[in-house]
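Hi, here's the filled form for the chain we discussed.

Project: internal
Contact: R.S.
Residues: 148
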Amino acid sequence: MRHLILASIITFGGALSAMADDIIKVQTNKTVAEALDALEAAVGNAGATVFARIDHAAGAEKVGTPIAPNQVLIFGNPALGTPAMLIDPRAGLFLPLKVQAYEDANGQVWLAYEDPKETMDELDEVEKSPVIEKMRGALKKLTTAAAG
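And the returned structure, exactly as it came back:
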């Protein structure tokens, strides 16, 4: 029984570590709102479409449970998403892309997103396709521009 518990701890601990590696964080000196405004502008300048901007802190405030500033931008570009969905329609479960801006417990603001290669790792043919590298490059470029 002790071996089973130890194996479970090791497996679960490894899974948590792997999940943490799937999230890419970009530090910024901007506020959450400024960082998301800059990201929204960069997305528009890149020819992509913003579908939604979600303010989690505003939602938390409505239920009387304040949290630090925390917003998510949901956006996409058919030039990147369509090829992925042609390979495997289930790629649509993971699209459009999203980036979160949040303030941590130390007051530091981060832009964070999940690596699309990891997001779509269950879709072998999509994960191996060049479109994933294009998505990764776009997210890196957009978050770097927004953070600056």
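Let me know if anything looks off before we file it.
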